[in-house]
Request: fold
Amino acid sequence: MEPPYWAVIFTNQRRDDDQDEEYDRTAQRMEQLAREVPGYVGIESVRDGSGFGITVSYWESEDAIAAWRNHPEHLETQARGRRDWYERYELRVARVERTASFDA
Amino acid sequence: MEPPYWAVIFTNQRRDDDQDEEYDRTAQRMEQLAREVPGYVGIESVRDGSGFGITVSYWESEDAIAAWRNHPEHLETQARGRRDWYERYELRVARVERTASFDA
Reply:
């Protein structure tokens, strides 16, 4: 997709790095729900063994981000994340202005 | 730091997920060099066992990003990365407009 578009950069530290099937299942469910939001572009996510993770989701517009942020099931999950799963997180909403890529 | 500021989102796939001391040493060196660039704000980086990684660096201005992009030792390392280390990557320059955070 050509810029401009939007990115939500979510950097987070899990409270423990144990396997947690419910966390993983919920993360998959959130990704599935996000895909259904008009204006969704894509998502990339990675977590290391220490429980530190970065997820970046991409959106066509700020309205699409607002629709996702306020999705009822997503709101419930956000509260669950603060209660049970995350030690800390930072969320940054950014407008993508330029891109470059490489493919060997 | 209060927005607006800038983020460079670098998502990448290593060619293999083997331990590679030279890669790790070079990544540390690049982070050290980046810190010396005026306008550097911070960096967050994570890679999983499959060799997929996301690094987000933060900058005060587009000029700071340009200075880092064109740093001679960094230019050499970029070429090395395309030749030896990366299967593919995407680089996105984005302007951070809003932030939120949580700390348990």
Q: What stands out?
A: The mean pLDDT of chain B is 95. The CA atoms of residues 14 and 99 of chain B lie 30 Å apart.
